[in-house]
Each structure stands twice: as C-alpha cells, then as structure tokens.
Amino acid sequence: MRPRWRKVLLDLFEHKGRTVLVVLSIAIGVFSIGVIAGTYVIISSDMSASYAANHPANIEIRMSNFDENLLATVRNFSEIDAAEGRRVFSVRARTPQGSKWTSLDVVAVEDFEANQLNILNPIEGNTAPEKGEILLEQKALDDLDLEVGDELEIELPDGSLKRFPVAGIVQDPTTSADDFLASPLAFVTMSTLPNLGQPEQFNRIYASVVSGQDDIAHIRLTGDALKDKIEKSGFTVVRMRFAKTHEHPMAATVNAILGILMALGVLIVFLSSSLIANTLSALLNQHLRHIGVMKLVGARNRQVFIMYLALILSFGVLALLIAVPLGGQGAYALSLFIASKMSFNLMGYRIVPLAFAIQIAVGILVPLGAGFIPVINGSRVTVLRAISGDLARETKPGSGSGEKRESGFERFQTRVTAALARRGVHIPRPLLISLRNTFRQRGRLLLTLFTLMMGGAIFIAVFNVRVTLNDYIGSIGQYFLADVTLDFDQPYRIKEVTQFAEQIDGVEQVEGWSFVGADILYPDGTVATNLNILAPPAASELVSPILVSGRWMLPGDVRKLVVSEAILADFPDLQPGDYLDLKIYGREEAWEVVGIFKFIGREGVLAYAPFEYISEVTNLPGRSYSFRVVTAQHDRAYQDLVSEQLDQYFRQQGFKIREASPGLAMLDLAVESLGILVTFLLIMALLTASVGSMGLTGTMGMNVLERTREIGIMRAIGADNPAIMRTVIAEGVVIGSISWVLAVILSFPITYLLTMIVSLAVFESPIAQVFTAAGYFIWLGLVLVLSVLASILPARNAARLTIREVLAYE
Amino acid sequence: MIQPLPAIPNASESQIRQAMIDLRGVVKIFKNAAGEFKVLKGIDLTIQPGEFIAVVGKSGSGKSTLLNMITGIDYPSAGQVVIGGTDIYHNMSESQRSLWRGRNLGIVFQFFQLLPMLTLLENVMLPMDYAGMYDFDERPKRAMELLRMVGLENMANKLPLAISTGQQQGVAIARALATDPPLIVADEPTGNLDSRSANAMIDLFEQLVGQGKTIVMVTHDPSLTARTSRTVVIFDGELIDETIVRALPLLRHRHMIEFSRLAERRAYQPGQTIISRDQQVEYFYMIASGEVDVVLRGGRRSDVNIARIGPGNFFGEIELLRGGKSIANVRAASDGPAELLVLPREDFLRVIQESPITAEALGNIVQQRLEEHRAVDHRKVRRLMKR
Predict the structure, then answer these.
(1) CA of B184 to nearest chain A CA: how many angstroms apart?
(2) Which of A43, A159, A172, B137 could form a disulfide with A651 if both were Cys (CB 3.0 to 4.6 A apart)?
(3) For residue B156, which of B184, B201, B123, B185 has the smallest C-alpha distance?
(4) Domains in chain B, start-ordered, CATH in brackets?
C-alpha cells in the first residue's frame, strides 16, 4: 500500500474517539432519515394496500333496524356491487375473573364464510365463530387479558351476565379504520344475537360501489341516492360514512405526521452535517503539520485534497455500515408499530430501495459537502503556514506578538470587563477565561450553537404542541362537560329518568338531549354533506362552545342552528344569518345559521339546536334516548364509580339502558392517542438534542485539544485539577446557556409551525396555540446537564494532561 | 527600582533557614520505542535561599528536565526533590503539586506563556485566583503594583498580543511574582528578547535577589552567567563540578565532565603543605573552597608569600605543561582549611591536548604566572643578596 493511503488508514484508527464522533454524527443523520424514509415508503404502500386487500366498504350506513328484504333492495341498487347487513352495538365486557369493564362494539355478521366486505384477517383460532362463540379484534386484547378458548363475560341489556367462549382472534383493518378513538371490536354470528339480548336484525349497511371505487364524489352520490331509497322504504338513516377502496381513511393523517418526522429527519441530517464540518475543520487544523511535511516532500494540493477526501469517504462508509442496517430495522419496527396501532398488516420485512438510496446519498454526500471547504482550505495551505502551525490564528507568543492589533470584539470584551471592574464587579479570572474562550473559535461556536439551538427549539416546541393538543382536547371537552352519559335503547321521560338518577349519591343534575341526523343540500338540491344535530336544552351548561362567529342557541330558536366550522369546507362563505337547506325526515327546510363554533373537523359537520325545538321535530317532547348527568365530583375515578352505579340501578329498575359511560373516557382515549404522536415528536426532538450535545462534546474536545498549551500554563501557575475542569465545564455551560436563549426565541415560530401542521393533519382544523413553561425549563435543565456531560470528558482529559506533555507541544 | 511588596508567609522560619532547593540522587529516565533514555543521572544539587543561579548546558543536556524537576512539572524516576523544605514528589498528587506551585514558585517561560484571552492585569491576577491568596478585592491592586514594577501599568487592560515581546516578558515576571513566592524559576527568560530588554530583565532579577528571592535561571548567554552568583553546568544528564566550571570555563563540557569524574577531592588543614618546591608535580590542582598560599622559602625567619589564590583558581599547571619540578611551595592558607580538586597528570595532559582553546588559555596563564614568578623571584634574590 502506498504510504499516503496508509496514512489515511492510520488517521482513521489512530484517534478512535474522534473517528467515533464523526462516524456517529454521520450515522445519526443517516439512521434518522433511513427510519423515516423507510417508514414513509412502507406505510404509504402497505397501509392502503393492506386496507384494500380486505375489501373495505365504500359506504357505511348507520340506520334503524332492518331485515334481509331491505338488504336485498340495497343489493339490487344499480350502482352497488356488494352489500352486507350487520348489527353493531355496544356492550360492556370483562374477563370472568376481572373487575374492570371494557366497552366493546359487537359486530354481528350473517355469514363469515360468504362475507365479501370488511374482511377479517385471522390472527389466532377460528375466523368464523359458531353460535354462542365470539371473535375478538386484536386491539381488544390491550384491555382484556384473554386467549383463544377463554371466556369473555358480557353484560346483557337486562343487567345479567353471560359468558361467551373466545373462538378466535382476528384483525379488522377496515371497520373502524377512520376512527382511532373507536372502541375495540368483537364479532358474533347473527344467530348469537338473542344470546346477547339483541334482536336478530341488522342496523348497519356496508356496501361497495360498482365503479369509481376511489372517486369519493361518485361514492357520496351513490350513497345519497341509496339513502333516499332507504328512507323512502320507511327506515331512518342515522349517519353515513364514505371511503375510497385503495386509500386508507387515515392515510392523509399518517402521511402528514410522517411528513413532520421527515422534516425533522432532514433537520437532523443538516445539523449532523454542521457537526461533521466542525470536526473535520478541527481535524484539518490538527493535521496541518502533516500537510506541511507532505508538501515539503513534494505532495501537490490535489494529492492532499484526495487523501483527505478519501478519509471523509471512509468516515461516511463506516457510518453507513452502522446506520443502514439499523435504519432498515428501525423503519420496519416503526412501521410495525404504526400498523398495529392502525390495525393493518405490513407486506413483510424488506429493504426499501428509496430509503436505501437516500441513506447512501446522505452518508456519502453530506460528509463530502460538509468537509469540502475545510479540505479545500487545508490542502491549499502553504508549507510555511502549515509548519508554523498558525492556522488557528491564535496568538503564538514570540511570533509576531506586538505586531497584531486587538480585534473589535476583543476590545469590546476587555472594555466591558474593565467597566464592570470600575463599578466594583470583578469577574474571577478563571471564569473570564471560560467566557472569553467561548467566543474564540466563532465559526465553530456558531455551528455548535446552531445545532443545540435547533434541538432545543424543537424540544420546547414539542412540549408546546403537546400542551396545545391537550388544551384543544380539553376545549373540545367543553362540549362534553357531563360526567356521565346515559344512553337507552328506547326513549324515556326526562322527569322519570331524573327522579331515578337522583337516587344515586353524587348525582346533581340530569339533562335529556336529543339528536337528529340531516342532510345539508346544495342550492341544486344535491346533498353536500351529512349533518348531526345535537340538541341539549338551550340553557344547558354542559356545553361551553368556542364560538368562531355569531351566537350560541337560545331557548326560542326555531329552525335555527349553530354549526361547526367544518361546514366551511362545503360553504366557505357561510356566515351567521345565512340559511342552509336541510333535509330532515324527508322534509326540506331552510334553517338559519346563528353561529359557527370550533370543533374537530374530522368528526364531520355538527350542529347544535335547542332540545325544546328538536324534540318537537323528533316527536319526542319531554322524552329522550340520551341523558347527561352532572356529578358532585368530576374526576375520572368518580365518574367511573357513578357510571357503574347508574348502570346497575337503571337495569335493576327495568330500564333498557344501553350504556352508562364516564364523560372523561373519550377525552382520555384521545389524549392517549395524541400521546403516541407526541412521543414520536419527542423522540425526534431528543435525537436532534443528542446531535446537538454530540456537537458540543466535539467542540469542547477540539477546544481543549487546541488549548493544551494554555491549560499547561494554567497548571504551571497553580491551577489544580478542579480548577481546570471548572474552566472547561464553565465554557460548555456558557455555550449551553446561550443556545438556550436562542432556542427560546426560535421555539416560538417552530411551535406555531409544528402546531399548524399537526392540527391540520389530526383535526383538519387549525387550533389556538398554547405555551407552557415546562418545555422551556426542562430544556434549560437538560441543556445544562448535557453541557456539563459534554464537557466532562474533555475537562477530564484536560486535567490529566501533564505540563511536560503540554510543553512538548511547543 | 523595585518597590518591596508586602510579603506573605509561604514557609515557616525553620524552612527558610533550610536550603531552598535540595536535589538528592535525582534520576529521570524517559522511555520510548527505542528503549530507555536516562536524561538525568543522579543529580545532587543544593541551592541556598537568596542565591541567583544560572543553569547552563547544551541542547539535550537535560537542563530543562532538571528545571522541570525543581518546578514539579515532571517527576523523577528516582531520588528526592525538596523545595523549601517540602518533598514535592512524595504524598503529593499532580493536582496538589499545581496548587503548591502556585503558592510557592513563580515560573518565567522562554515564550512568556501569557494567556491570550486575558488582559495583562488579568494574567497577573490569575495565579492569586488559583492559589486563593490575597483578598478578592486586593488582587487587582497587587497586580497593578506588580505591573507598575515592570513599567506596564499603562497597558494593564491590553491583551498580550498588543504588546512587544520584551513587555510580555515583563508581564510574565510580574505574574511569577503574583503570589510572592520565595523561588523564581526562569527557563531561558532572555531567549526571545533583544539585549536591552534582556539586561533590564536581569537587573530586575538582581533586585529581586537583593530582596531575598532565590532565582534559578536556565540560560545560554555567557554574559548573563557572569551576573549570577553561581553557575551550574549540566552535561549529558550530569552536573559538572562547579570548581571545574569556575577554574576552566573555556573547557568543553565533555572535558569538564570527564574532569568531574576523574578528579579527586582532597582537604587540607590550615598551613598544610600541598606541594613542596623542587617536588615532582603529579597533579593539576583546582581550589574548591578556602585559599592557598604560593610561597618561596626564605631564610630562617620568613618565607615569602608571592600569591594567595582562592576558589576557582588552580595551580600545578606550569610544571605539568613545561615539565620540571615545582618552582614554589604551595600550602593551605594559615587562616582556614582548603578543599582541592586534584587531577592526575596523564588525564590532565590528555584532555588539554584535546582542547586547544583551553591549552592556549592555560599557556597564557602559565606565561603570565611565570613572569610574575620571575619578577617576584628576582626581587626576593636581590633582597637576600643585600642581607
């Protein structure tokens, strides 16, 4: 091997610490981008492919009970390709030994074998239960510790308990694909329904269209036409949902979130490149003498340039060897996690060519790009300058001293110190050394500050986003202030329910709410969208709306409603005072919009109108299916307790109660789901922060190495180990502190940006920004700890240097 | 003029009465890929408080290593280094030694080694900060006084890069004095100075010695060694006997060290005859301490003392170089004992033959002494004839 290539090899392995630092800084970027790019590709292909493979229904109609006759009518509808009738209802279930109830949505299927839509994937045991058996969707196992063959205890509408053997575990990627807050599913045959106290009738239609399976407008038109036909047959349609065949309903959301993670991944690459630039620049500084000697014996600029380019490429290749396999595994692991959360299957482990190519490109091009300028500068250095070792432009005593002038910044520093001293403020000199050392290598300082600042700003922003999301969920919770929701299978008089409910300790107030479904029509009479009208008493205090414009409902309102801002998607110019054409119970009426309120866009268009009027529309004056209960205390545990008591009591009293659920249950579930997203963001923020702290470690290491002589002088004039360590660590802490201030400033725009992207992805509506001090202070603590940790190793090395070694640098 | 500064107690009175520096059998071995290399070969050296010592030696002779032993910068492979009564290499970690050094020792480097990010004033205050000496508010005042001493008070707030090398060395000396240490060690302090700055610096050192400081200075400059109270020459890791250095300063160091090894130390009581007239001279004599009288024997009543020579002088060279017997009596002075270094004739002649400069210098001395002797001898003969 030629001597110069041997030198490259030796450079690679001689300073293992430095090589590890450079390789790790490249590897972190390559790993992050590999994981995100791999996940992006895997998820975007597998999510929708897996979804489509299970033949998802394009139209889901929730409606009143019906039988085979109506189903046959639907199947005969011209645009319908296949249709299934099912019964879906909620139950409470638990393990026979357990005391904790879990809500399950039970889906009764006519024939599991002949099923054409929303097909189940087998996980374990049977996929077609016998009469009296039950299948569990795998998500149910999160709450129920059951295996195939075990029994599940279900509470029947009459309050009695019945056990059902679990025949199998299945995966249903389609039924609740659009609702990450939905209850876990269980499956039974229609013939099992009597055992569950349910009529052997369907209440839901799942249908696919003949053509245009990915044309949502066509699907919607078909669905609306179908709905007309159903309503003309005397059935009530409660709600409709539409979905494409080859696109997972959550694809846009997941892709948007992956997009954010991708942006962070790119940022990490960017930050790690500044770290690489820093380290390579310092390496070139240290190699100056080598370069001088090589040039002295005849090396040309180009040869030196190529040698160091080869060194950088070697760093890149080493980083790729570590990061590519790990990135591939990481991408698959992350995809598996998302797939399990979203209930779909991956097509198996594979190398994603695009992610692989991106990783290779990042691993090779980023270090080359980052190192290009330092290498060019290093290779062009003159022999004289290289041998004199004056690249760092540090004052070399005895060589040209007295000829140089203090820079403006140096004058500023000394003047400030002198001014402070005149006012009696004397900064201890060891601390002065740390403070002034901080600003000596200003290019390096800027790069280090940049990485730490970005890491910090993202970290703080993630905390703000978390609080903003929770605050938003909390504000959405203002629409659900009741502590317990009581749903019955038949309407009851409000007074009667109130009297019974008040028998339970802790119940303070009961309200009956009404609901009605409607279609909003375009002026040409076609259906724009579905509308769910919620009707609490006009004076109800259980809704505390966030009004965007207009007013809230009033007791005397007739054909007036307050509508959620999702309406603006179809009617962007809608304002309070405008009228909407609604179709309710087959009647077309013009309703005045009196206000617009903020709500999760994903939930479709909601409206509020006073119970007093809607109960007349539904012909149930003074009666209701659904009740809201206010209890003495409002924590989740108390809500659980009262829900349980109300449930039992009403059953005992012979009411056909469907469900008594604690008010915070839904919110807790939402917060938990958002928690996963926040965790991902936090992991990315920590990765960014770790790149930042690696940058700081590298910077401090380089600073110490370059200031070896000065450290020796300090030792020679009396600095003991703790004094040396304090000087180095204080410098790290100063850098960390400056980066914190910058991170605080930058965190504001990043917070707004991140919140906007996340809220649009998750809620399909922008949300109000909230800030929390927690992120700022946690990051302050973290960055200080990181600064100390990043400085300890260089500080220990500095303290270990004997003065003789130091003077050997002369 | 140096203003005396308020002294702080660094060592007990009993320690001050002790030797300032006491090196016993100091060996330093460096190890590298080529094997072991003995840089110091059992150095014994004692320096008293208030001495101004020049350490001289060629490159690689071990003088910097010797200085590193004294300053606690390096550690010996064997032997003991006691500075101001403190054994600095036993029961003291490197870190503790740094603190000890800050309080008890001032170092002046050849390249000044000021910290570039601190102003001159701050550079001078730094050792006080590290040593925790003087009140925090008193430190700037003391540092300013020290800068005034070296004439740099007007530049106190400048950075080192903005002043000349001579000024930088002034600051380095001020810094070395910051904690008022009893011992100043200077490694070629004039190596980077012009002759005027170098002279000013040595003036300053002399004043400091006058105030009771002990100064050990490595130098190449013979003009500086002339101004010190002692010169210690190191060659190839060994100290050359100071008597030889003083007696034969023009001898090459390798010959000096050879003499050091071959010479025998002899003590003579007051009045004890060392050489008798007409005796065959077999040795070259160098006076380490005490004095000797060169005497021509007269009548019964008196001998004529033609010369009294003291430490650093030598005799016996005339006979050894010209052949023949002693031309006078030589005896230890009657008022005190004398200690001599004696070198056998063959060794002396061999070495002198190898050193033409020394041979020439000795030749000149022989010629001069012979003339003096002849003059004295004629007068003596005439006096005797008159009687």
Answers:
(1) 12
(2) A159
(3) B123
(4) 15-239 (3.40.50.300), 256-385 (2.60.120.10)
